[in-house]
Amino acid sequence: MVEIYHNVQSDNGTMTDQHALREMSTKFLSSVENTKDLRAPLALESFMRGAGMVDVAGRMIPLPLNGWSIG
Description:
By secondary structure, the protein is mainly alpha-helical. It has helices spanning 20-32, 44-50. The chain has one domain.
C-alpha cells in the first residue's frame, strides 16, 4: 500500500514558506482540510494493525521534487 503525504518540506531546512512547492503544498492542504484527512498516510500502519493484520511494516520514503540539496 502506498499513499502520499502532501506536506512538501526540505530535509535540510532550506525551503522557505515562499518557495513555489511549499506554497502549492500549503494551499492544497488548506483546500481539502474540511473534506479529507491528508495525514492518514502517516497512520496507515496503525490502521492496518487495528484491522487485525499482523505482519505490517511501515516506512516513509522521501520523494524529491526538485534539485538535491547541497551540504
